[in-house]
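Predict the holo structure. Ligand: flavin-adenine dinucleotide.
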Amino acid sequence: MKYNPTMSDKIEKIKCLIIGSGPAGYTAAIYAARADMKPILYTGMEPGGQLTTTTEVDNFPGYPDGIDGPTMMIQLQQQAERFGTEVRIGMATAVEFSNKNGGWHKVIIDGIKEVHAQTVIISTGATAKYLGLPSEKKLRGGGVSACAVCDGFFYKNQDVAIVGAGDTAAEEATYLANICKSVTMLVRKDAMRASKAMQHRVSNTANLKVIYNTEVVEVLGDEVVEGLRMVNTITGKKKDIEITGLFIAIGHKPNTDIFKGQLDMDETGYLITEGKTTKTNLPGVFACGDVQDKEYRQAVTAAGTGCMSALDAERYLTTLE
Ligand SMILES: Cc1cc2nc3c(=O)[nH]c(=O)nc-3n(C[C@H](O)[C@H](O)[C@H](O)COP(=O)(O)OP(=O)(O)OC[C@H]3O[C@@H](n4cnc5c(N)ncnc54)[C@H](O)[C@@H]3O)c2cc1C
C-alpha cells in the first residue's frame, strides 16, 4: 500500500526501531532494551522468522536436547519483552532515511503509521527460494529443507538429493556427502554454474552423483519424504528415485526491496555493512542477520550480529549526546 500522509494516525518518536522478528531482531531487542533504548520491534509477516518453518533446531547453543524452532522463537520474544521491548505485529512498508548525523529516520508501518526513530536496526532476513511444487510445500519439515547445514545431520547415513547448480548448492552437496550415505545432485541445465574449483570438489566426492538436464516434478511421500519423481528436460522421460531427504539450494532473496535506493546493497540485494560493524552507509541505520550475510546464514550468527547492531546503535546515540 502506498503511504499517504493524511492516513497517518499519529507520528511516534522513538530511540530505537527494530524491523524483523528473527533471531537477529530479538537479540538486538534484548541488548537495546537492557541499554534502556526502549526499542519497538515490528514482527513483519513471519513472526519469529525462518526458524518457525523448521521443527528441530539442534545447533543453537544452550539447548542440550535441541528445541523446536517456533518454541525457541517464542522464548526469544519473551526474553526481549522481559527487558521492556515492545513487540508489535506490523510490516515496514516504506522508509525515508536521513543522511544526517543525528537525523530522524522515517519508517511507515502497514502504509498507515509513521514512526520516527533515531536509530533503526534492520533484521528483515532472507527468504529461501523453493521450487513451488505443492508436494514440496506439503513435506517442508518432513524431509524437504532449504538448509543443508541445519538439517543434514538428521539424514545421517541416508540417501538424499539436492537441487541446485551454483556454488552454494555444490558446497552444500559436498557437506551432505560427508554425513549421508549418498547424495544425488539434480541440475536443471547441462552444466553447473558453480566455480570450476567447486565442480572439481563435487566430481571428486565418491558418494555424490550429479544428474544434468533434470527437474523435480513431484516429491513423493505422505507425511515424510520417501522419494522423488524427476523428468529429463530433453527427452521428457520421467524417473522415480528413493530418498528420505530433499534439499533445495536454488538461492535466497534478501528482504530489502523497501530499502532500495537508500541503502548500499550488493548485486543480489544483500545490505552492505561497514567492516566488522553493522553500520550501513547511513548514520543511525544498522543491519544484522541474514539480510546482510549470505555466507553463514545461521541462527547463532544472526543472533551474534543482532547483539552487535544494538551495541553499535547505543554507541551512535552516545555520540549524539
Ligand atoms: C528450513 C530452515 C531450517 C533452518 N534450520 C536452522 C537450524 O537448525 N539452525 C540454525 O542455526 N539456522 C537454521 N536456519 C537458518 C536460520 O533460520 C536463519 O539463519 C535465521 O533465522 C536468520 O535470522 P534473521 O533474524 O536474520 O532473519 P529471519 O529469521 O529471516 O527473520 C526475518 C524477520 O523479518 C521480518 N520482516 C521481513 N520483512 C519485514 C518488513 N518489511 N517489516 C517488518 N518485518 C519484516 C520477518 O517477518 C521475520 O520475522 C534454517 C533455515 C531454514 C529455512
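Residues 49 and 60 are 15 Å apart (CA to CA). The first strand starts at residue 11 and ends at 19.
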